[in-house]
Amino acid sequence: MILLLSNRDFTPVSFWPFGGMPLPLGGVLVGALGIGFVAGLIFHLPHRFRVSRRAKRAEKRVAELEAQLPPTQDTP
Questions:
Q1: Rounded CA gap, 19 and 76, in Å?
Q2: 72 φ, ψ to 5°?
Q3: Backbone angle region of 19, left / alpha / beta, with phi > 0 → left and psi within -120 to 50 → alpha
Q4: Which of 15, 68, 74, 76 has its CA at 20 to 30 Å from residue 3's CA atom?
């Protein structure tokens, strides 16, 4: 919020097919930050889903193997 209020000067921003328009510098910076965050999230999500599936399979396999173990007796 402080960034937006501190950088209220207008700067020209050009979008190729649409031409240019003056936008507040703080808005341009926050917009670029938001676009970068979304792009990073889109790039990272497939890896996260793959790792999550792998972890669930590993947990299931551990449960199966633990079920196969013979019961142990505690001897004092």
A1: 82
A2: -100, 145
A3: left
A4: 15
For residue 4, give every residue at least 6 positions away whose Cβ sits within 8 Å of its Cβ, in sequence order, or none.
24, 26, 27, 30
Q: Which two tokens stand for residue 71?
A: 């019961």
Mean pLDDT of each 10-residue bin along the chain, 76 residues long: 82 86 90 95 94 97 92 72
User: Can you tell me the distance from the alpha carbon of 11 to that of 28, in angstroms, rounded to the nearest whole number?
Assistant: 9
Name the residue with tokens 């999500």. Answer: 45
Joined together, the tokens standing for residue 37 give 């965050």
- In this prediction, residue 75 carries a pLDDT of 65
Token pair belonging to 51: 């790792």
Which backbone phi and psi does 69 adopt, to 5 degrees?
-70, 140
